Amino acid sequence: MHEVPFGEILERLRGIGSKKVLIQTPEGLKKEAQELADFLEAKGIEVIINGDVNYGACDPADSKAKLLGCDALIHLGHSYMMLHLDVPTIFVPAFAKVDPIPALEKNLGEIRKLGKRIALVTTAQHILHLERMCRFLEEKGFEVLVGRGDSRVSWPGQVLGCNFSAARVEAEGVLFVGAGYFHPLGVAIATKKPTLAVNPYSGDAIWMNKEAERLVKKRWAQIVKAMDAEKFGVIVSTKKGQLRLAEARKIANLLREHGKYARLIAMDYISYSALEGFDFDAYVVVACPRVPIDDYENWRKPVLTPKEVEILLGIREEYEFDEIPGAERKEDEPFGVSLKGSPAKNADFDRM
Amino acid sequence: MHEVPFGEILERLRGIGSKKVLIQTPEGLKKEAQELADFLEAKGIEVIINGDVNYGACDPADSKAKLLGCDALIHLGHSYMMLHLDVPTIFVPAFAKVDPIPALEKNLGEIRKLGKRIALVTTAQHILHLERMCRFLEEKGFEVLVGRGDSRVSWPGQVLGCNFSAARVEAEGVLFVGAGYFHPLGVAIATKKPTLAVNPYSGDAIWMNKEAERLVKKRWAQIVKAMDAEKFGVIVSTKKGQLRLAEARKIANLLREHGKYARLIAMDYISYSALEGFDFDAYVVVACPRVPIDDYENWRKPVLTPKEVEILLGIREEYEFDEIPGAERKEDEPFGVSLKGSPAKNADFDRM
């Protein structure tokens, strides 16, 4: 389904004189990662494969690479997210080969219900087809708006599970193209607009707003469950791109100002089982919003997002999805291999 | 069961001018860690609690402390293990309050079966009672040998699950005092001597040699299961005190010299589930020996220790327990709070 450009990666490694490299891979590219390791070792570069689960561009293994004595990291499956990197890192985004146009064609009737002026968003996997999708929809009479998005995303029109900045445009409704529920649910809650999710693999189209309502109801139930909580564990992630320490401190202080007890807890792998034995009545996850929202059923204590705590304390009225905002994005990432990170000389490569 | 000296820890933190500290705790001291956090925050020091599971002194959270902007780490429950530390670290070993003498008294008949000249070993938790145990046993007519151990342990007579250097003395048999099976099993296999484990909590005494034989049989079964394996994943840990990279490379090279395919895999949390999707027939864990030995039933592929690979390849005949050896230990650790690690000025504190 995906292609990894072995030759280009080798060239980039040779360009920085790399002799020892760590390869990090998402679940779906494990076979390719291993084949890449075989290929590079045959070319005389020592390879270690990172076996820990990778959660995205927010979770680069650059510090582990340094600890292991590697002079570079290959991060498969995602484009660069603005973060300080401890070693030069080659980002190799992965694009799905599926053509989304037939799924759009099939669901034109539903898409028309969004209105004439629509926002188009997708995940990184399908971003290569964004322009073709725009043209197709424009030919069908739509005015298609593609939001630029902020610095947390790599390209206009791209959404993450924690960032819907590219969906915030003056449209009547939002068309999301991609697989999975989490992203379009976030889009629907974040934009509060009619949101249709078209799956390019199955060809299905699903209206997300009912699903979003259902999710928001579940979240309100978590908030209600936390009403009597006195002691809050405020969890901050040690994954570089999820390390929202200032936000966590803000939430802990807010809780204390409202007479609650709050302590900061740092975790790499956030799970309830690791927290058993501490004396907290409820938790706030100031990390990836998927943790409290996707995993709450595995927690024996209420677990909230920062925005939900504001509702709990009566500071906020309307439900809002937990997003990790970026700054202004200066330029888009390339649709292919890119080299980032220290040492200083790599700045030259970045411009190559 | 344990006491954490809050005042002394505060003094040490003030001594290095710490303003922000990360507290790392083992499972059994979570309540105390939280109380310590409350105490220190009341004194004006900002605290973050490390929520990740801690596996021992081999797994200090100093790098996480640095990432979180903390200027010091408090590591509860273990004494210092010789490692480079990214921030000044206060080690607070925890000692059990149980008196082991009654359990020795009760089991004198069994202890006599070890012979007259016996080795005495224990875990860090009971090390404070080592001298009293020696005296008690000597009064009962034993010649008691306490091995010095290497630099991986802190005190003479101390054993770890990965280091039995203190048990290697010219004794007829070994008396282990402590709870749990893993340590005395390792002692029995490592020393190949009659080994009696006396549990100071329950007062029970168990001969470990039958248990050891049973474990070795299970390990041979793993080796046999791996006989037809062609592709080996050689797992190295990114936990500082388990990072046996040279050993992992040696094992990978050995496998290759014997016509096998081998790849290095780096992991922080070693579990089979994270490895599913890679194309390996068997794994070698060059990290904490507990992982392959305690957890193998959760692996769907054979999982071996480095020494077991040597048996598999016909280089070694007799079964040997996987240990992580240290160098010569220059001095013992204090039986209490100690401050270690950079910056350079801390060298003065170490000598305090």
Automatic annotation (TrEMBL), chains A, B:
Residues 325-352 are annotated as: Disordered. Keywords: 4Fe-4S, Iron, Iron-sulfur, Metal-binding, S-adenosyl-L-methionine, Transferase. One of its GO terms (molecular function) is metal ion binding. Its cofactor is [4Fe-4S] cluster. It catalyses: L-histidyl-[translation elongation factor 2] + S-adenosyl-L-methionine = 2-[(3S)-amino-3-carboxypropyl]-L-histidyl-[translation elongation factor 2] + S-methyl-5'-thioadenosine + H(+). Its EC number is 2.5.1.108. Gene3D superfamilies: Diphthamide synthesis DPH1/DPH2 domain 1 (3.40.50.11840), Diphthamide synthesis DPH1/DPH2 domain 2 (3.40.50.11850), Diphthamide synthesis DPH1/DPH2 domain 3 (3.40.50.11860). One of its GO terms (biological process) is protein histidyl modification to diphthamide. The keyword Iron-sulfur applies. Transmembrane segments: none annotated. InterPro entries: DPH1/DPH2, DPH1/DPH2_1, DPH1/DPH2_2, DPH1/DPH2_3, DPH1/DPH2_euk_archaea, Dph2_arc. It is an enzyme of class 2 (transferase). It comes from the Archaea. Belongs to the DPH1/DPH2 family. Catalyzes the first step of diphthamide biosynthesis, i.e. the transfer of the 3-amino-3-carboxypropyl group from S-adenosyl-L-methionine (SAM) to the C2 position of the imidazole ring of the target histidine residue in translation elongation factor 2 (EF-2). This is 2-(3-amino-3-carboxypropyl)histidine synthase. It comes from Thermococcus waiotapuensis. The gene is dph2.
